[in-house]
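re: that chain from earlier
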Amino acid sequence: MADYPIQRVRGPLSAILSVPGSKSVTNRALLMAALASGTSVLSGALFSDDSRYFLESLALLGFETHADEASKEIRIRGLGGQIPNTNVSIYTGSAGTASRFLTALLALRDGTWTVNCSEQMSRRPMQELFKALSSLGASFDFTGRPGHLPAIVHGCGCPGREVQVATDESTQFLSALLMNAPVLPGGLHIRTAGKRADGAYVKITARMMRQFGCGLRHEEGSGEFLIPGGQKFLARQYTVEPDVSAACYFYAAAAVCGGSVTLRNLHADTLQGDIRFLEVLREAGCLVEDTEAGIRVTGPGPGRLRGVDVNMKDFSDQALTLAAIAPFADGITSIRGIGHIRLQESNRIHACVTELSGMGIRTEESEDGIRIWPGQVRPHRVNTYEDHRVAMAFAVTGLAADGIVIGDGECTGKTFENFFDTLALLHE
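^ sequence. v structure.
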């Protein structure tokens, strides 16, 4: 478990950088390509722990795949909803998208499969997805903790009908059902229970389904989705966008260090909901510009960042990023709407409170969020809890304060393998 000392930046930034392809878009494209008829080519794809587990699982299930990491290209031959190997084991690691999307894929087809995962993933919520799939006729034998992976999946060959799914713990449950529904003969009428049915990641799913040729009906705010059956995903050439979630760490660096950071090929028309983090940075005093090269963020400089009060329910992956720069603001930062992040790769609210307190920063936890006071950051070794976002967020703190060390930084490989190398470019 290697430690990664972070070198403080001296002086304003001036950087033009690239980040990997979006994890959320890559993994959705992998599933839709597998459900399509014919060969799809995904360019700009993310190669990380999560996407490799997804791709390896598809190969074990019998899909023809070819990955070229140098060119960031993946080829998949889809079989129109059929799965060649109907009695194999797959391993999804700590990838929530792979675990949830593939579990739904298997449960709604004929066959018996075993879905294994990492210890971390075995602690994450799955029960609501299992309940929804069980109501459609699938059944599960849990080989560990009931209601969690790992599990043996007995698929039901579902013709399609009505189903209800709760989304408070994760909208990935809904996305898993949405993407698998079009190829079912009868489609699905999905009713949601929870406050996040219109979340940013569900919108990514819906837009990408349309890009791959499948329609759905949904009135925003209704909590109901109607997906006609018998549709066909279209095999296609598809370009994966740069990862906005990854980009935000470098935009946050500009916010606290001053100067500017531009991310190549990232623009305001992105599918990804984390782009809303730039609105928060603008409110905090940053200049945000969409240039020909990509979005550029210019920070106000040390000591001039403003405290903000923001509901981050729909882009909660950036709650840690905002928390990591909050000590450098001129007032209290309040982050609301993020109670569900306690159930992600780690209890992220607990991680914020514990690690900021270790830096000497005052925090206050609530049921739904956290308040952070400005203060002098003292040297601290950050415990990352095997959570890539804890590691990447608090690395940004270390760019503006001396003595920050990220413990077990290898966990960034889940979504951004060369994160620390890219971070070092800010010093050039």
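The mean pLDDT is 96.
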